[in-house]
Amino acid sequence: MMSCPNLNALVWQHLFRNARRPFVWKSGRSIVPNGNSFSTETKEIVIPNYIPRGPTDILEALASTVKRDPTAPHFKFHDDPYLIPASNHAKRTYALAQEAGRKAANWIKHEHAELFQHRNAEPFIQAFAPAEKLTETTPITEDLLKKYIHTAQVANAIHVYGKLDSAAISPETRQSFLEFVAFYNEDDQLNQDFVEERWFKSGMKGKDQIRQTWKNNGLAEAVFNSMERKTPEAYCALICGMAKHGKAVGAWEYYNQMLAEGFAPNLTTYNSIFKIAGIVREDAEHQIRLIDETLRNMVHAGIKPNVRTLNSILESISRIPIYRVAREKSLQVLSDFKSIGVKPSLGSYYFLLKIFCREKGPINNILVGIVNRLEYEMPPLQDLHDVAFFAEAMRVCNYHLEDVQLAKRLHDLLCLPQNQALIGDSYKESIYYRCFLLLLTRAEGPEALMEMYRHLVPNIYTPEQSVFEAVVKSVAECSAVHYVPELWSDAVYMDMGERESILEVLLEALASGSGPDSNTVSDKDDVDPVLATARAITAHVDNFLKVAEEKNRPTSLRWTGSMLGNLAKLFLQYGDVASANAIIIKVHTLKNQLSSFFPVATLNKFYESCIERQDSAMALMAIDYAVEMGYDESSSMAKQAREQLKLDERQQEKLNSILGSTSTTSEES
Predict the structure, then answer these.
(1) What residues form DSSP beta bridges with 42?
(2) What's the rounded Cα separation, in Å, for the pair 475 and 232?
(3) CA-CA distance, 527 to 510, in Å (whole number)?
(4) pLDDT by residue (tens digit) across 217-230?
(5) In whole angstroms, what is the distance from residue 493 CA to residue 468 CA?
């Protein structure tokens, strides 16, 4: 009799063999209630249909269970307190420095390839191996040229092509080389692994600008002209390369030449022509006519458009300056493509937003319909412009519609695990969160604003100076002074503590309160957090200016009259007389260096405090500043000092010297 384990193995082998079709297995199980009677219970096991799985499905399922931790830095930074950047400058520097280290290691690997010949990976991954060097003894063959084309080594491929006899190169290899140099424009491209440098470079470029980088009369055109028989594939390669690198007029000329010779372009070539339609035809009417004519040519050639065709047409329409014409044509194109089964991608919605929601155009709510559709069905990533949608949509929410509820719905869409990669590079991510926070500062209360602020700052997003100032001003307008200590801490952490405008808004926010709050939880020294923050800012600025002076280092940070006025006002609110006196002494010392006047209202309040405390010395200092600045209140202040302060002979003389004997006599009379 067969043993039980072997029987189980055969059963499971039979099940998996038949897993592609529904299978029902009936098992009999004997139940013995007592020693004399037996009963059998039959249970059906239904094997589900086989589901095809990809090689990364398990990894994707595991990744979907891990959410982004807003309290942790980006994974590209070292998880070390001393190596976690907070400011935008530090993030950029750290990311580029780490990438520079990888580039240096890559350079060493290629320069000293003999030291890296070990092959531990099975199967071997050719991309990780050092690139072979071209030497004088390297045999120049067509196969070597094919290898360099396949591995995208532009410089080596060009060198080998120049060494080969032109007649010995097969037409297929020549066509592949033409496509290769036209696509890369004869330049070696940055390694795909070095994303940071490419991201920051893209942020430096102007938006929606097509720059001409095509090499005129270069190798690509020379290879094309050297062909005895011009093929449709050769025309397509040259046209696509020119359109990709900004040579719109040249691409249009070769396209017309191709049609004149009776050749039919392929789908990629048509898409390239649609992209440059707004450049070769500046007038709106001629642009639309060119688009319609090209679409008719596609129909006659039997070529069905795809979503990239739709996006290319919408990109050209977005450059039409006349709002009405662009809007009507885009809706017509969208309807036509829908009729042939082409669904829009996120890139299509991106161009629709650029067409309908222009900066100086009328208000349009097309984004509401787009978000409704995306909440129902999110299209997959299909086009390079898809990653630009969320940044543009949030810009529309902020500047065009000013709709915070729509912005929240958009943000909820982005936060879905499958959509987080759609935010794009660091430049687009910065635009997205900048617009989101700016909208929240205008439309939400301090509690909701600070909740989102804490979620984003500083690991996900480091606010620019203008955004941070808007957050502080929004908090100050609602008199939510208890958030200012936290914002000051973030300002120091993000290297904004030495910026004059940041200090101005922070001190103004601190002084906007009404004084000590009995419900505020004090720290261990029984110092109110707001008062402690004011003292910390004073010490921070004094120390920074002292170090700059000692090291003879130029700095743009200076004490201003408004900054000192807000500090004095706050210290008086909290009864910190010593700190208020120190501020007035600073004002008296720097009165000829301050870029703005000390507020007269705060000066009066301080003076009244001196009268109450019978502090003659500080009162005279306040009168001296009022006279120096020409305040009208100086006369009444001097009169009040004579009447309510006990001045000794020396102080009387000082008051006389401040006001002058004539003004003093007139006051006595």
Answers:
(1) 28
(2) 64
(3) 15
(4) 899 999 999 988 89
(5) 13
